[in-house]
Amino acid sequence: MKRFLGLLLAVFLVLIFAGCSKDDGGDETQDSGSGSEQTETTESQADGEAGLAPMTGEEITLTYASWANADLNNFLAEKFMEKYPNITVEIVPVEFQGWNDNLTNLASTGQLPDVFWYLGNVDVAIRNGWLGDMTQYFEADPESENILSSLKVQGYFDGERKLAAPVTNLPYTVFLDENLFKKQNVEMPSPDWTYSEMIDLIQQMTVPEEGIFGYNTFTKLLTIAPIVNLDALTEFGFDGEKYDLTGDWADAVTQRAEFVRSGVHAPFFDTDEAEAAFGDRLLWAASTGRVAMQLDAWWTVGLFKQPEFIDKGIKWVPYTVPKGDNAETNRKPAFVDFGTISSATEYPREAYELLKFMGWGKEGWEAKLEAFQTLKNDDGTLVFEHPDGLPLIEDEDIWSGLRALLPEEKYYDDFLARAKEPVPLGGAAQPGFQTFLDEVYFGGEYGDVELAVVNGEVNAYDIAQDLTDKINEYRQAAIEELNY
């Protein structure tokens, strides 16, 4: 149920989901009714002075594909065309199910969109040579300086060329049932809580005799711990050059297994244990009122405001993932989706500007804030009950504009203030990662590694070095495929 809800929300958003886990801007807006030679010349000169090559004044068409909300895509495309009256943006309809396969089919007929998002696995884009080089535009663009520091370095897969950029930002979110904490006379943690404090609270809030579980998961401790404790750039302790699963990953996957076996973790969905605990094997643990923490994602903020939870006396409030005990940064995992320009586009300069506008750009985010407040369904209800993700740039006006669209509770002030160093998950952000997961981590000699540890079939510490060696080999092999 939860995975289905996550996918459904991601389609109409989205972290997964999120993954994703976005924002920056462009040039001065043209008069949408003009398109005169004088206006185009002025804007082109401004581009040139900013360091970017001038935009074309010719009539051109750019194609675009993303799984973002269709109404939002159309709204943003219209805003972009108002700014650049000579550019027509065509939204390419691509089915979310089998997204990368559908892109492959388009590419095989020479119809790969000029600008597109790839789903989860960057290895697909690498093997097919889809990624266009946007280095000269990104590095000459003054707006690139405003991108959140933890995201600015992403997309340089070979360490030299900017081949992709974050386009959405949906942070991991730890929800605490405030009402359950009050009932148990346990004080809510500080918004500056640490990883070890979260682990302690999970255990403290587990009350077997009352059928109360410390936590339930959509996201996992074994993903969180290596990032926050090692100030890593993605999962499994990646430091920009290599992975290391021998420390925090091994600790976290072992602790998770112990929590599952001892009943600290709520029973998994559709199991005999869930039926025994809740009387319904298909009831999501987070909707029972007997779970203290739900490790989840930003998009669930909207779901937890529904009457199903409120009527049961459940008050889920959002916390950011805690900071590492000895961390020097505030890096936290997020579902961050990535977009790119096609390596075959005829208009790379203009494609870059469209990618920025639809993703991290300030002007694009100003349009998104407008869309969140104005787009309506046929029945008059708002398309967005809450903002679709968080910004990807350091811009107080944008963050303040988004804050105004969220509930007034202080939890949201605390959350946003501590959610400005998002770290992408490995599949979309790092070459070789997803292929390693498919062929080794979930499908290799140990079977599903996480399940094997829970079942006591393997010891995480015994296999951690082997996994470390293999993932670094997969990374190197994937990078070598980037020579196109």
From TrEMBL:
InterPro entries annotated for this entry? Bact_solute-bd_prot1, SBP
Q: Which PROSITE patterns match?
A: PROKAR_LIPOPROTEIN
Question: What is its subcellular localisation?
Answer: Cell envelope
Annotated region (Disordered) at 24-52
Q: Which UniProt keywords apply?
A: Signal, Transport
Keyword Translocase attached: no
Stretches of Polar residues bias are at: 31-45
Q: Where is the signal peptide?
A: 1-22
Coarse class of the primary localization is other
Q: Which GO terms describe its cellular component?
A: cell envelope
Q: Which family does it belong to?
A: Belongs to the bacterial solute-binding protein 1 family.
**Which PANTHER family is this protein grouped with?**
ARABINOSE-BINDING PROTEIN-RELATED, SN-GLYCEROL-3-PHOSPHATE-BINDING PERIPLASMIC PROTEIN UGPB
What protein name is recorded for this chain? Extracellular solute-binding protein
